[in-house]
Amino acid sequence: MVNVEDLGQYLSEAVKSRIKERIHFDIPSQNDFIQYLIDLFNEYRLNPQEQLSQFFPFSDELTVRSILQELGNVSLRRLNEAFSLLLELADLDDQAAPLTIDYFNINKAEIIGWKS
To answer: pLDDT tens across 51-75, in order?
Structure first.
């Protein structure tokens, strides 16, 4: 058994090292984001055999690229939040897929209101 004081010292050092060491993540490029979204969409397809666009539920690559351009240089977390919110709004509005840039523009204030 480890003495409680020894364990406290060990944990204290482990926590300190995590606080001191800064981990840096570069913002992915737009092409990296595109590939991330394609992989994500493919992973969660209900019927993978169905011949859908690789960008479904979005209309095409141009729509996705336009949304990414509107978002600007953001973290992966911010990207996930924006696309998730867009999908949730489409679901609430009973908006049929594929989603277009026009639908994004209608809801842009809600999706990227933090940029204002």
So the answer is: 778 899 999 999 999 999 999 888 8
Does a structural domain hold residue 13?
no
Share of the chain above pLDDT 90, in %: 45
> What is the spatial distance between Cα 61 and Cα 31, in angstroms, rounded to a whole number?
11
**14 inside domain:** no
Please tell me the total count of domains within the chain.
Answer: 1
Enclosing domain of residue 80: 26-115
DSSP 39-98: HHHHHT-S-TTS---TTTTBS-HHHHHHHHHHH-S--HHHHHHHHHHHHHHHHHTTPPSS
Q: Which residues pair with 99 in a beta bridge?
A: 58
Answer positive or negative: Cα dihedral of 51, 56, 59, 62. negative
The answer as to whether 54 is a domain residue is: yes
Residue 19, domain member (yes or no): no
